[in-house]
């Protein structure tokens, strides 16, 4: 496989100046720092509700019933 550009630069620094870039990296904890949660039922239903709706389709909303004509009684 090909080497990445960053790996080639690290190897070049190690060859020419003797500086190892891996030593200047911070230490990471031995445990995962990501919080993993499954989706709640509300989140799943909300996604299902909005999945196929186009937010830019302004013609999808039918507002004809909103304006009612006045009828003389």
TrEMBL record:
Residues 1-12 have a biased composition (Basic residues). Residues 33-46 have a biased composition (Basic and acidic residues). Residues 1-61 are annotated as: Disordered. This is YqkK. It comes from Bacillus halotolerans. The lineage of its organism: Bacteria, Bacillati, Bacillota, Bacilli, Bacillales.
């Amino acid at each position: 496989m090909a080497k990445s550009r960053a790996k080639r630069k690290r190897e070049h620094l190690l060859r020419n100046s003797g500086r190892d870039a891996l030593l200047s990296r911070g230490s990471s904890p031995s445990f995962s720092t990501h919080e993993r949660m499954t989706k709640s039922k509300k989140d799943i239903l909300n996604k299902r509700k909005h999945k196929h709706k186009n937010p830019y389709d302004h013609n999808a909303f039918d507002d004809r019933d909103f304006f009612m004509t006045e009828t003389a009684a």
